[in-house]
Design goal:
Helices cover 83% and strands 0% of the residues. It has 180 residues and is mainly α. The chain is globular. The protein starts with a helix and ends with a helix.
């Protein structure tokens, strides 16, 4: 009787692990969707930044190109995790898929763009920082990147509105349509 109980417990664990593994694997988009979607999302975020900065009457093409490249890089890197988390957290439900993708892709795109801009700030201020991996350098790195991320969240997120918001809704609808 004891071996029967142990076999039942082992089967429950296996089925739970099997279901979890299938859910994790099933949420992953195929490689074509990943490559094409990442490229399209990156281009969309870059062009959105160019359009918003032109609308805000910026007249410095080099700076617009630099800022647009940060937005494009954030979109490129955020696409796969955003779509994956949206599909994973929705568990196949389309309404939950839209909400999960909206949050994951939106927050991921903003966070990664802010991080890339933070790294650029760090690069700029590197001449005044202490030697690499010293205690002071670690504090300088954390606070420089943190300050840049905060500054981006306060001042830079306005670039996403209203066009970025509409592009995010379109990406979420596309993801929900492609869910299995």
């Amino acid at each position: 009787m004891n071996s029967t109980r142990q076999a039942g417990i082992a089967a429950d664990r296996t089925s739970l692990l099997g279901r979890t593994g299938r859910a994790l694997a099933g949420a992953m988009p195929d490689w074509r969707t990943t490559l094409a979607g990442s490229a399209v999302w990156a281009v969309a975020m870059g062009l959105m930044a160019v359009a918003k900065l032109a609308w805000m009457r910026w007249y410095e093409p080099e700076r617009i190109a630099l800022i647009a490249s940060f937005f494009a890089a954030g979109g490129l890197v955020a696409f796969l995790p955003g779509i994956y988390l949206g599909r994973l957290l929705s568990r196949g439900r389309r309404d939950a898929g839209f909400a999960a993708t909206f949050l994951a892709l939106g927050i991921g795109t903003i966070a990664l763009t802010a991080f890339f801009i933070g790294l650029q700030y760090r690069q700029y201020y590197a001449a005044w920082h202490d030697p690499f991996l010293s205690v002071h350098w670690i504090f300088q790195f954390i606070f420089t990147v943190g300050a840049a991320v905060y500054q981006f969240l306060v001042l830079g997120t306005r670039v996403y509105f209203p066009l970025g918001f509409l592009l995010l809704v379109a990406a979420c609808l596309w993801n929900v349509r492609g869910m299995r």
